[in-house]
Hints:
- The chain is α/β, with parallel strands linked by helices.
- 39% of the residues lie in helices and 24% in strands.
- The chain contains eleven helices and 15 strands.
- The strands form four sheets. It has a five-stranded mixed beta sheet with strand order 4-3-5-15-6. The chain has a five-stranded mixed beta sheet with strand order 11-8-12-7-13.
- The protein is elongated.
Amino acid sequence: xxxxxxxxxxxxxxxxxxxxxxxxxxxxxxxxxxxxxxxxxxxxxxxxxxxxxxxxxxxxxxxxxxxxxxxxxxxxxxxxxxxxxxxxxxxxxxxxxxxxxxxxxxxxxxxxxxxxxxxxxxxxxxxxxxxxxxxxxxxxxxxxxxxxxxxxxxxxxxxxxxxxxxxxxxxxxxxxxxxxxxxxxxxxxxxxxxxxxxxxxxxxxxxxxxxxxxxxxxxxxxxxxxxxxxxxxxxxxxxxxxxxxxxxxxxxxxxxxxxxxxxxxxxxxxxxxxxxxxxxxxxxxxxxxxxxxxxxxxxxxxxxxxxxxxxxxxxxx
Length: 317
């Protein structure tokens, strides 16, 4: 017995309460549907239908089997569809939103390679710092940085995310170099104006998590706030104060000595929790091949040590 076909025949017959209607849907003879159901009844040792001149009536056993068989058949159909989709060539319009500074430095520069690899994908990329509702705005995918709030959205971690405290050589020559997070209270602090939170979490590298020396929470006000990472970096280079800048934005500035890292034993986070570079997309049962292609492309790129090595080397210099 072809159990899959027999179960499907039973479900259709149960929905229509008719062998002939089930046969019509499956494009087989009515006798074939009858044989499938008889084989199922024989296999389980229980009647699934009571037959009368008026048609079919589910028995108690038939109702139980229908409930579970419907769930099982749907799961099997989903498994087939999801697996088959892996072989579908990515195509269509892909709408992506990315933070401007990160997008310019680490998304745009690799788009020629992506577009060459996936020639059936069209891209519509929006650069914005605001966290937009992906579903309401018809956006397929977002790249987000830092600690994510709880939501029903699907996420994939692409790389860690942390900030580095840094300042220009001229500023440090005049104001001195802080040796511990508490020393920052005596300095001019440049801030990003994305959100009202003024707390910064300093996590010491190599310290045991939860120990008294592993983390410090500092609160800064500062006279100057900007909402753009590139502008914040330029202000730090100009000697206006100490900035907490993402490590991915600092490779060239540290390498050229335009900026000097301070508190090199501490990573800086704007909020408590796992801080990362994330791919975020709506919670669909089947992730489209175009979204999967974009996420996999940048995940493979960002997960390599070579990609970030220059930034790390610059930070150590």
